[in-house]
């Protein structure tokens, strides 16, 4: 929530000036930890990134055990807790990361991807805002399981090119590299 909106809603609130330089420095420390495990890092923000550890053979290639180690090193070096999501694509890794916050670690293996997303609310999909959610509400779509009842062609008729993306995400499919 933007601070201007927070101030309107809660005029008695005390606002602390952000220390962006400190945040950036800590973010750099965290990214140095990431670099110990992979060069394939896609930063999303100061405190969030996708890591591709496919080729890391530490812990016999266990991405879950790598995530445990990364979380441990972040805490040791910065004093901060971190959440991690482990999965075979970005969509599910992000869902997994959000699933057990704060200080969580959750894994969605390939054989559980489609069934895991069934209970997800449509609003959890990246790109589904209020307008799309209202459109889906008219179609009586509240969860991925509801969305899975539609064919790719039907979703494309309703949502254009985004319909194909919705079809794939509702089945745990995300082709982004």
Automatic annotation (TrEMBL):
<protein>
    <recommendedName>
        <fullName>DNA polymerase kappa</fullName>
    </recommendedName>
</protein>
<keyword id="KW-0808">Transferase</keyword>
<keyword id="KW-0238">DNA-binding</keyword>
<dbReference type="Pfam" id="PF00817">
    <property type="entry name" value="IMS"/>
</dbReference>
<keyword id="KW-0460">Magnesium</keyword>
<dbReference type="InterPro" id="IPR001126">
    <property type="entry name" value="UmuC"/>
</dbReference>
<keyword id="KW-0479">Metal-binding</keyword>
<keyword id="KW-0548">Nucleotidyltransferase</keyword>
<dbReference type="Pfam" id="PF21999">
    <property type="entry name" value="IMS_HHH_1"/>
</dbReference>
<dbReference type="GO" id="GO:0003887">
    <property type="term" value="F:DNA-directed DNA polymerase activity"/>
</dbReference>
<dbReference type="InterPro" id="IPR043502">
    <property type="entry name" value="DNA/RNA_pol_sf"/>
</dbReference>
<dbReference type="GO" id="GO:0003677">
    <property type="term" value="F:DNA binding"/>
</dbReference>
<dbReference type="GO" id="GO:0042276">
    <property type="term" value="P:error-prone translesion synthesis"/>
</dbReference>
<keyword id="KW-0227">DNA damage</keyword>
<keyword id="KW-0963">Cytoplasm</keyword>
<dbReference type="GO" id="GO:0046872">
    <property type="term" value="F:metal ion binding"/>
</dbReference>
<dbReference type="InterPro" id="IPR050116">
    <property type="entry name" value="DNA_polymerase-Y"/>
</dbReference>
<dbReference type="InterPro" id="IPR043128">
    <property type="entry name" value="Rev_trsase/Diguanyl_cyclase"/>
</dbReference>
<dbReference type="GO" id="GO:0006281">
    <property type="term" value="P:DNA repair"/>
</dbReference>
<dbReference type="GO" id="GO:0005829">
    <property type="term" value="C:cytosol"/>
</dbReference>
<dbReference type="InterPro" id="IPR053848">
    <property type="entry name" value="IMS_HHH_1"/>
</dbReference>
<keyword id="KW-0237">DNA synthesis</keyword>
<keyword id="KW-0235">DNA replication</keyword>
<dbReference type="InterPro" id="IPR022880">
    <property type="entry name" value="DNApol_IV"/>
</dbReference>
<dbReference type="GO" id="GO:0006260">
    <property type="term" value="P:DNA replication"/>
</dbReference>
<keyword id="KW-0234">DNA repair</keyword>
């Amino acid at each position: 929530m933007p601070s201007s909106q927070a101030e309107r809603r809660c005029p008695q609130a005390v606002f602390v000036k952000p220390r962006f330089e400190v945040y950036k420095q800590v973010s750099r420390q965290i990214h140095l930890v990431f670099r110990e495990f992979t060069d394939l890092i896609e930063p999303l923000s100061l405190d969030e990134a996708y890591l591709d550890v496919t080729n890391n053979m530490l812990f016999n290639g266990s991405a879950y055990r790598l995530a445990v180690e990364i979380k441990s090193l972040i805490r040791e070096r910065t004093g901060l807790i971190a959440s991690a999501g482990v999965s075979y694509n970005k969509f599910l890794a992000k869902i997994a990361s959000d699933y057990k916050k704060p200080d969580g670690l959750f894994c969605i293996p390939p054989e559980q991807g489609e069934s895991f997303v069934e209970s997800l609310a449509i609003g959890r999909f990246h790109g589904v805002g209020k307008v799309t959610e209202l459109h889906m509400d008219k179609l009586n779509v509240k969860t991925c399981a509801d969305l899975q009842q539609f064919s790719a062609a039907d979703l494309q008729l309703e949502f254009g090119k985004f319909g194909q993306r919705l079809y794939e995400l509702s089945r745990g499919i995300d082709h982004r590299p």
